């Protein structure tokens, strides 16, 4: 497999758009009742449900990628537990027949004119717009990473083109220093950078190299996990497994030739600490895509997150625009679990609105998010909480902060099935409707 920056960039929008079918080039304009930008986890749910309800020709979805990924599986792919094929489907098999797939990327949104311009030159207009284009990886923001990635033990689960290097390098590791990093800035699934550390530590034991290795987790933030209930359990896991946890250490540079990582210490000193590595799993810095970052303050904030009301996911200025998932400004932890529930709120309210049901009660989003922290190949701490209040919202009857085999089975085996069989068809709206059965006494 080829390496480095090209791997990540291959999945970026501009490149992806250029290799796609381009049947509509030449400025042909089309119009949709509902237009979605992105057919990832959030976008596909809205698209599937509304296309099904409104019928052919009413719903368009702008999506440049030929593949749809179930990204949460990449942690298990990276650990060598699941095959990559379990995490991917052809986009053509996922987008419903009643929706119109526009095979290009959005390059700008004109909210006043209600139009989106595409990489292929076309302009598409809408009555209602749902923005769900996720985040992009910014490799360049860690000096030396574009050159080092994919070589000599430098890998990342955060991209479909590099995730398979993780199990390769884990198996090649013969002992020494194994580092796992998490940036100081917002990312999707903030638990994923440490999950792979626990799974790797187990693999090193299985491979007989743990006794001559050090496993270290470096995080740019000041806590091992944002919610105390789960953080306490994670500290216990890290301590009993002899994993060194270094907080407020933000990876700023990698020197591939010297096999050395540099961390800025964010304790006010800004000291640079250098650390040799034999294996390093890097979580890159991320941001919303360029078209949002350059869209101007009316659509998005300075960082490019679409500014929405955190309960309705409706834009704060343009009430015919919604944003869901990783690219929205909703202040919760960015996960597929959150995107699923946000999509449910938006598609339900939007459908009522389109039908003119003025008296129907609007659904609201409570910040629900979930992060299954795999601690081994048969145990998981299943964090489920509101990112708005910090309170646990657990779906199951037992204490989910404890390492559990059942939690592992649910997230490693059951949820992926639900995702492919129900979610992508718009038929899964999160676990809350089952909670009276799965957690009848509402234990948290
Ligand atoms: C390694 C890893 C582990 C994870 N683990 C978990 C987990 O355990 N649990 C969990 O809940 N979440 C997890 N996540 C996070 C989860 O995958 C994301 O939060 C979720 O996919 C967000 O959904 P989304 O719809 O906002 O974006 P995405 O699913 O990323 O979809 C965005 C879509 O928009 C498209 N797009 C991009 N730019 C444009 C454009 N300009 N025009 C049109 N379309 C565009 C993309 O091609 C893509 O299809 C993990 C992610 C990773 C990478």
TrEMBL record:
One of its GO terms (cellular component) is mitochondrion. Its cofactor is FAD. It comes from Smittium mucronatum. It is found in: Mitochondrion. This is Sulfide:quinone oxidoreductase, mitochondrial. Belongs to the SQRD family. One of its GO terms (biological process) is sulfide oxidation, using sulfide:quinone oxidoreductase. Residues 33-146 form the FAD/NAD(P)-binding domain.
